[in-house]
Fold this sequence. Notes:
By secondary structure, this protein is of the alpha/beta class.
Amino acid sequence: MNISRFFGATNREAMRQVRLALGSDALIISNKRVSGGVEILATDQTSLPESSPAAPASPASAPSMAPRPATAPAAHAPQAAQHPAHHHPAQAAPGHHAPGPQGADLMGVIGELKGSLETRIDELLWGSQLRRSPQAVTLFQNLLRFGFSTALLRAMLKHMPEQAAARGALQWARNELVRHLPVLESEDALWQPGLALALVGPTGVGKTTTVAKLAARCVRRSGPGSLVLVTTDTYRIGAHEQLKIYGQMLRVPVHVVQDVHEMRRVIQSVRPDQTLLIDNVGISQRDRYIHEQAALLAGAGRKVERLLVLNAVSHGDTLDEVARSYAGDGGTPLRGCIVSKIDEASRLGAALDTAIRYKLPIHYVSNGQKVPENLLFLTAAELMDRALAPAQAGRTLYAPTEADLAALLSMTQPADNADAAAERRRQQILLPQLLTGSSRGDALGMDQLQAAVALQDEDPVLSEAYDLWRSRAAGDLPPAAEAIEHLRRVAHGGLDETRPGLVVHTRQSLDWQGRRGAWSGTAWFDDQGRPLAAATQQAGLADGWHTPKGAQFSAPSAADVLLAQIDTETEDAPTAVLHVFDGGSQALQRDLSARDCRWLAASSPRTRVYLDDEPCVLSAAVQPLMYQPLDAQAFWPLLSAAGLESAQPAWWAAAGQAELRTRGEPALPIRIFSLRAVDPRDGRLLKVWYAVAGMAVEPDAHRIARALLLRQECQAAWRQATPLLADAGREPLVDRAVFAAQMGLAAWRLAQDPALAPAARVAARMLGADRLAPRQAHAGLLKLYALKELLAN
């Protein structure tokens, strides 16, 4: 091989000499600045020796290593002669080849230099992206805190939209991670007849306990006669005795094997339809015995699937080393992994990161020592929500702070590109004029448009609706069950565990593609009345009733639908829940009270109750109650409560107790409420609301008044959203209902929440108005989403 040394006053001139002499396929060995210019060492791939690099050079090959005349034009000679004093005597003249080292050492140096150059270029591009996108810096820092690796984050964040705001960027990252996280499709895909499954991994990761949990699942599915347990762990004292105890409890046989011959003998005794679970001795990823264990399982005489057990408590570098060692141990390919001890881990990101990078589908996660209950089968979305839970994002000692990243980024500041700056200025001038110009000739500024996009990204209701809107536009609207489960987790994350959450249930008529029916839905609000997310949605037409769990021919009664929704939303709620609905029979209210459920029913003034053992209607029962004025901030999240903004009413509320009675049943104590809106100018009564509630509901007038108005507001918001159900589309009705419910909630919040007033103003101007009216909220929301897409591209 011939090495050529080139010298030029600048790097461009030296590279030009390389291309002229060796062509565009030249291999650059080194590039360094020397006194007076730049020196490049390069070689031509065609001059590589044909013999093996490790073999000694033969005499016949010696002539090929002799110097050859340069092919550069003679016109370059004067340029080299300009710097004669800067050349070492041993150096060849520019444009001439000089002999260099050969064989494996030289190829290794070339490979190292090439890898170093590629790494350096990648780092420069990555640093440039971080400087251009401040949100990428924040997101990079946050995901590092959650335990994800820099390698994964670099690969992912290169595709992040540059205009994304903080919450929008985190939501985008979550969706990307969910999309790439491999998980087992269903448990049925694992538990096939004749399955032979072995758990492998380092010591102490919980393999034996996990085998016992898997065995319990198998026995529950197919009975004890379908399972055989095997252990190869004869090193730890009492290890196989522990598995035998589990086997006795499950009434399944347990075999202990020490070598491949015993393994084959045991497997030959197992029926082909029986499941075989193999517990192995824990082996360090650096132990040479890891290859022997792989050979033992590969030579068992039956195909043995292997699952790697990853300890969620371990550091990310340790998990990476474990996965790399077991994936390359020479045995059968790993089928996937099980993540253990997530209850002990402060961060789950490292384990999920390893599963993504090594493409190991997660089959189960273990969250405790109890057998068999502490083994969970979770979806990719559920795993990622656990990994990104806010409680886990506390102070960490192993991730850079904002000050650290700012200091690193400030070390090199790129020069601003004049063309790019001019294009940005042009966009800042023309885009607002195009979108928000009015007949008066004024327009909003670019900073106001960007602020509006940032506000919708920061708001959970609007950002979740945006994700559904974008998914539907791409023809990939998620199934109702999946979307509702995610929205419910979002709602739970926005609740204060010390205060009760609020779930509003509504029911209204539906006209879907010429067919009439009913739409029943729920939405979550926090204790202050701020909307969090839509939840369970159901819809019924003449041909059947549609729910997230499937469709049925006959529609259940309204009471049964409401009870099902209340049970669903109460289950796994992180705090106490107050359920608010319209009307309801006395039988329903008795049922809810018997369950110790907190319920509030907006009622007719003619509802029959008993006061002091005397029957009367609800409007008469509240007359003797003591009314009290409500604080001006009682309805703070609402710009216009019950459509009475122009009147600016004074609010008065009263609470008392009464009874419900029916033949053959004991009297049911209830609370009764009345809310009045009064014109402060003349004392005229503008509107009155009545409600009854179970005794479990605290008599807090402010909270009850808020709940009553939110029920009415939610009903109105979804009434405005019903046209979304009638749009042309092929999505199932219940999938469309979830989309419409979240969009309706987002549009209502855009028009009502004072915190979103800047975004509402931008939406109104894009509609040609100065103020966003409630009836325009849906159109304004769609305009904002289109603006977000425009600024992101």
